[in-house]
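Exercise 3.2. Students should predict the tertiary structure of the chain below and write it as structure tokens, then compare their answer with the key that follows.

Predict this chain's 3D structure.
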Amino acid sequence: MSSSTSRVATLAAGLAMSLALAGGAAAQTAPLSAQESDPRVMGWMQGFPPPPDKLITQPDSNFFSFPKLRWSVCHLRAFLPTEEISRGTGAPVPLSYPAPARFAETAREIDALTFKPIGSDEDMTWEQSLYANYTDGILIIHRGTVVYERYFGCLTEDGKHAAMSMTKSVTGLLGEILVAEGVLDDTRLVRDIVPEIGDSAFASATVRQVMDMTTGVQYSENYSDPNADIWIYSAAASPLPKPEDYTGPNGYWEYLQQVKPEGNHGDQFHYKTINSDMLGWIISKVTGKWVTELASERLWRPMGAEQDAYQTVDGKGVPFAGGGITAGLRDFGRLGLLMLNGGVINGERLFPAAVVDKIRAGGDPSKFAGYPTIPNGSYTSQWWVFGNDHGAYAARGVHGQTIYVDPTAEMVLVRLASFPQAQNGFIDPTSLPAYQAVADYLMSK
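Answer key:
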């Protein structure tokens, strides 16, 4: 790697390590518990000015290292430029809540639920799992009513939290809406929609292969390898000024133009963030709008969101379609409701039911491997499909982000977190059984 690429990559590393959904390199172990690493306990950025040892700043590239991570997930705009996903000027449409006494009683009952984590014979309570997973915010909606809601760490009711790779599912949802409405033909080749892609390996892939991440493209997210593609991608995407001797690609789209082939398109699912940014470019080409504009028009405004969201951008203003969204807990809950109700919220249909039908059906399980906590899973339209008895599917992001939709239990569960390690495989053993325990409880009521 050239010295200039290395310097830029170093500056971008903190973001890339968390938003690209790979590695777990942010921390190999959790030296502090959730309670000990709470940003308020740590004292990050407290005081006017904060003491030097409590500063978390950019361009220092360690703002996404643990335990600083636990403050940074709520303050991305302090580090990176963003584009707004506007909720518009109308009044938000409130979520439904039960009477306070009933809400408190349900919360106590859920906190006391027990389950056995995957691979363990010891019981864990729901409340214990929240701390085990470094939860920052948790919201559960059952049959259209919020039955559980708590905030921890850096997150408050009016705060926002990084979605990480749940952003991919927003991008995928927008793409699937366009397919269902006939605006986007998922059988077309990328080069026929984005001629600027040139001789990139993406050129000969179909839109569907991009959406389902079955492209044969070369891209390594091995953080232990200093020459891995992730570092070149991070350097290209960094919004900070490039050194004078920098000769690499500038921005997400320039990087996509030089991707080399690896394997055959359509053969196998490979989770590679660059597919999401390729899909974002495709969406912009067929609509003439940034993905942030489209998310505002098709989702945030009509669903009655409480808060504007925002999305990080590269040095050319291109939104990070693979991991850049930050939004409020309840608005992620509204997205989950949209999915649970087949495109309907507040009595209004925002997109065709076929969109959710396609996602719920999942991808080809024979092409999905390497995820032991999702043994019957698949992936389609940038959504994870679990293949369990409840037909659950989810948006997922590193460090514990999820919008988990359980159609059988009529449940939406949103968890925002700052788990020290990136990969969800570390968190699933104490998360997926907990979600099932709550679903079973709600179905019994």
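Discussion points: The radius of gyration is 21 Å. Confidence is low (pLDDT under 50) at residues 1-30.
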